Amino acid sequence: MIVPFSSSRAAPLLMFGAVACAQFNGIDIRDKIEEIEHLWVDNRGTNSDGFVGGVTPCANYIGFASNGRNRGEQTSAQWVRMVFHDSVTANLAAGTGGVDASIGFESNRAENSGLFINDTLQFMRPTVNAYLSMADNIALGLVVSLVTCGGANTGIPLRAGRIDAVEAGPAGVPEPTTDLATTLAQFAAAGFNQSETIALTACGHSLGRTHYSNFPDIISSLDGGVGFDSTPAAFDSSVVNEYLEGSGLLGGPLVTASNSSDQSDLRLYISDKNITMQALSTEAVFQTQCNSLFERMLNTVPSAVILSDPISPMTWKGVSIILDISSAGVVSVSGSIRNLYTTITRPATVPFTLTTSAGTSAILASTSAIGAGSGIFGSTIYWSFNSTTTSPGTTSVNFGDVVYPVNDQIFITPLQSINNRGAITVKAAVLTSLVGSSTMTAVLYVPGTQQGSLSPKITNTTIAMTSYGTVGLYTLFASGSTTVGGGGAPGGPGGGGGGGGTIVVKALLGDIASRTVKSTLFARA
Ligand code: HEM
Ligand SMILES: *[C@@H]1O[C@H](CO)[C@@H](O)[C@H](O)[C@H]1NC(C)=O
Ligand SMILES: *[C@@H]1O[C@H](CO)[C@@H](O)[C@H](O)[C@H]1NC(C)=O
Ligand SMILES: *[C@@H]1O[C@H](CO)[C@@H](O)[C@H](O)[C@H]1NC(C)=O
Ligand SMILES: *[C@@H]1O[C@H](CO)[C@@H](O)[C@H](O)[C@H]1NC(C)=O
Ligand SMILES: *[C@@H]1O[C@H](CO)[C@@H](O)[C@H](O)[C@H]1NC(C)=O
Ligand SMILES: *[C@@H]1O[C@H](CO)[C@@H](O)[C@H](O)[C@H]1NC(C)=O
């Protein structure tokens, strides 16, 4: 019997129905959802990319400036400010701008002064791939920053599907010296009215500092920065209450600046006679209002972008599911099964089944736990599985409450593909009855460097494949050897020799597409 495991905190089911077919550039929205879910849930241990570690604890600085900590840098504050500066230049009426990583091309503008843009992009580059844009990385960055800084754990619904811009957007981020009318007009164009602008600014200025290195006219200390409140590493209403009560840091440097031209926060806060600030002074109201405004900011995207439904951490999940074919023509499906659990004892074995055209297979079971991890939503345990299939005709692998589609008519065989220090030969298998006269190609989605931004750009490269034999009912194909990546953007852990993270691959026979595969077997040298 399959007894589905459930836990109280991790919502059990992802609803794919309405969005299962949504694609952008040949990538399934489901793959995007599962990729961002992975960074959100797999914080430590097996299968972790360390994304949340960048803002753990909240006061952490993971950027690349050698003297960053002395300069008062804090990664969580950088990540929150990043979303604001990327999105506030949106024009809702025109359907342009929003969270689209265009900020990467804008780091040298005076309105974007500071280390935050390149620090953030350099940290997030390794987790950009065809499944996860930089813009989605940036959105996740805000959500997890608030969690590690003490905000409500599940406060902001997270969606996937943002698309990266390939050039700079318009300028217009308000500065300390910007007058009130101009500031309100800029926020209004991005969809925020006066009281929302006041609230959003107070929400953002709950974290981080004004830095001497960026605003020497405002901050007099020769090093470091001055917080907007006494708790710059706690996402809380202190900034509001210290302002209203005249305690602590009085609302921070943009309230108290010696030159009144620089008092942009004060101009905003008193523009409605402190009514919005007073309404925000209760902690619970502050959290609710801020979450709601941050959510709207995260979901401000160019009109062509279709975001996914809100994502829930998955109790059961498949990781790196791939197919292979033996020299006898027997197809196998393998991968890992992840279970996310909190208080309930983790299961000892994982039953799974395969669905074929003839029905559901007998129950198979994986008994080999291969790793464990932990994170915001609980603990994880991983099992490996590998089963031969009845092929052709196997359509899914099923466990817990999830169903993973399998396409055994045409599939990449990562285990047989060759990666000789970045020179990649892609191999695939196709049902011989389908081959006909169509052309067989492999498409590689490669994160590479681009001019003017540290954010990687995904380029898809199509390469020809030729058949090199048959096994059973299948014809085997191989591409020529192709060298991808290189480019070598400066410094930074994980930056490596290319622009970003892992390569995603699929095979095409005319119009018939395999599922895409993201495998470290295709990583660059
Ligand atoms: C009129 C509106 C705003 C102005 C003029 C403004 C201006 C500034 C300035 C001058 C700094 C200091 C930056 C540095 O020295 O590194 C700052 C920091 C910050 N701002 Fe704003 N801001 C505004 C609204 C917002 C909003 C709406 C958010 C987020 C929703 C936000 C989030 C932040 C954060 C998190 C920091 C701290 C950054 C760090 O410590 O690295 N700001 N802001
Ligand atoms: C490759 O990228 C181009 C845009 O540069 C897009 O039009 C095309 O559909 C992509 N091809 C595949 C196979 O995804
Ligand atoms: C701004 O929008 C909020 C809803 O978020 C509304 O309650 C408020 O009345 C609006 N304020 C102004 C000044 O239009
Ligand atoms: C708003 O609050 C600030 C800080 O407490 C105070 O200095 C100011 O006089 C108040 N302004 C109005 C119009 O209430
Ligand atoms: C205050 O700032 C404004 C705008 O930057 C500048 O024009 C003015 O000279 C400054 N005043 C003083 C006393 O520094
Ligand atoms: C799974 O087993 C089959 C043989 O049944 C083998 O061809 C395939 O390479 C194995 N997959 C993995 C990931 O080891
Ligand atoms: C950030 O990196 C980009 C790309 O390397 C570079 O052009 C830009 O000057 C850098 N910005 C800052 C402020 O260092």
UniProtKB/TrEMBL annotation:
Residues 1-21 form the signal peptide. Coiled coil: none annotated. It comes from the Eukaryota. Its EC number is 1.11.1.-. The keyword Oxidoreductase applies. SUPFAM superfamilies: Heme-dependent peroxidases (SSF48113). Residues 75-345 form the Plant heme peroxidase family profile domain. GO terms for biological process: cellular response to oxidative stress; hydrogen peroxide catabolic process; response to reactive oxygen species. It is an enzyme of class 1 (oxidoreductase). GO terms for molecular function: heme binding; metal ion binding; peroxidase activity. Keywords: Heme, Iron, Metal-binding, Oxidoreductase, Peroxidase, Signal. InterPro entries: Ccp1-like, Haem_peroxidase, Haem_peroxidase_sf. The keyword Heme applies. PANTHER family: HEME PEROXIDASE (PTHR31356:SF53), THYLAKOID LUMENAL 29 KDA PROTEIN, CHLOROPLASTIC-RELATED (PTHR31356). Belongs to the peroxidase family. This is Peroxidase.
